[in-house]
Amino acid sequence: xxxxxxxxxxxxxxxxxxxxxxxxxxxxxxxxxxxxxxxxxxxxxxxxxxxxxxxxxxxxxxxxxxxxxxxxxxxxxxxxxxxxxxx
Length: 87
Fold this sequence. Notes:
The chain has 87 residues and is mainly alpha-helical. The protein has one domain (9-79). Helix content is 64%, strand content 0%. The longest helix has 26 residues, at 9-34.
Protein backbone atom coordinates (compact mmCIF):
# COMPACT_ATOMS: atom_id res chain seq x y z
CA UNK A 1 0.00 0.00 0.00
CA UNK A 2 1.09 3.55 -0.74
CA UNK A 3 -0.95 5.61 1.71
CA UNK A 4 -4.53 4.43 1.20
CA UNK A 5 -4.07 3.54 -2.47
CA UNK A 6 -3.12 -0.04 -3.32
CA UNK A 7 -0.11 -0.21 -5.62
CA UNK A 8 -1.64 -1.98 -8.59
CA UNK A 9 -0.35 -2.09 -12.16
CA UNK A 10 -2.84 0.61 -13.13
CA UNK A 11 -1.73 2.80 -10.25
CA UNK A 12 1.93 2.39 -11.20
CA UNK A 13 1.07 3.35 -14.79
CA UNK A 14 -0.67 6.53 -13.59
CA UNK A 15 2.29 7.44 -11.38
CA UNK A 16 4.77 6.79 -14.19
CA UNK A 17 2.88 8.93 -16.70
CA UNK A 18 2.46 11.72 -14.16
CA UNK A 19 6.16 11.69 -13.37
CA UNK A 20 7.14 11.90 -17.04
CA UNK A 21 4.87 14.93 -17.39
CA UNK A 22 6.27 16.55 -14.24
CA UNK A 23 9.88 16.22 -15.39
CA UNK A 24 9.03 17.94 -18.71
CA UNK A 25 7.38 20.74 -16.73
CA UNK A 26 10.28 21.01 -14.31
CA UNK A 27 12.76 21.23 -17.17
CA UNK A 28 10.70 24.03 -18.70
CA UNK A 29 10.63 25.77 -15.30
CA UNK A 30 14.41 25.44 -15.07
CA UNK A 31 14.89 27.00 -18.51
CA UNK A 32 12.54 29.86 -17.64
CA UNK A 33 14.41 30.50 -14.39
CA UNK A 34 17.80 30.30 -16.14
CA UNK A 35 16.64 32.93 -18.64
CA UNK A 36 15.49 35.24 -15.84
CA UNK A 37 11.82 34.72 -16.65
CA UNK A 38 10.79 33.33 -13.25
CA UNK A 39 10.60 35.07 -9.90
CA UNK A 40 12.99 33.74 -7.22
CA UNK A 41 10.16 32.90 -4.81
CA UNK A 42 8.37 30.85 -7.44
CA UNK A 43 11.64 29.12 -8.34
CA UNK A 44 12.22 28.15 -4.71
CA UNK A 45 8.72 26.67 -4.58
CA UNK A 46 9.45 24.71 -7.77
CA UNK A 47 12.72 23.43 -6.27
CA UNK A 48 10.87 22.21 -3.19
CA UNK A 49 8.42 20.36 -5.43
CA UNK A 50 11.27 18.85 -7.47
CA UNK A 51 12.96 17.62 -4.30
CA UNK A 52 9.71 16.06 -3.11
CA UNK A 53 9.18 14.27 -6.44
CA UNK A 54 12.84 13.20 -6.63
CA UNK A 55 12.49 11.63 -3.19
CA UNK A 56 9.27 9.85 -4.03
CA UNK A 57 10.96 6.47 -4.34
CA UNK A 58 8.11 4.89 -6.31
CA UNK A 59 8.66 7.44 -9.06
CA UNK A 60 12.48 7.52 -8.97
CA UNK A 61 12.86 5.09 -11.90
CA UNK A 62 11.24 7.70 -14.16
CA UNK A 63 13.84 10.30 -13.20
CA UNK A 64 16.62 7.76 -13.69
CA UNK A 65 15.26 6.93 -17.14
CA UNK A 66 14.71 10.56 -18.14
CA UNK A 67 17.86 12.17 -16.78
CA UNK A 68 19.85 11.51 -19.96
CA UNK A 69 17.14 13.43 -21.85
CA UNK A 70 17.00 16.40 -19.47
CA UNK A 71 19.21 19.48 -19.36
CA UNK A 72 22.44 18.35 -17.66
CA UNK A 73 22.41 21.45 -15.42
CA UNK A 74 18.97 20.50 -14.11
CA UNK A 75 20.07 16.90 -13.52
CA UNK A 76 23.09 18.13 -11.56
CA UNK A 77 20.87 20.38 -9.45
CA UNK A 78 18.42 17.56 -8.74
CA UNK A 79 21.13 15.05 -7.89
CA UNK A 80 22.49 17.49 -5.29
CA UNK A 81 19.28 17.04 -3.26
CA UNK A 82 19.53 14.76 -0.23
CA UNK A 83 18.55 11.29 -1.47
CA UNK A 84 15.86 9.60 0.62
CA UNK A 85 15.74 6.61 -1.73
CA UNK A 86 19.25 5.23 -1.22
CA UNK A 87 19.57 1.96 0.61
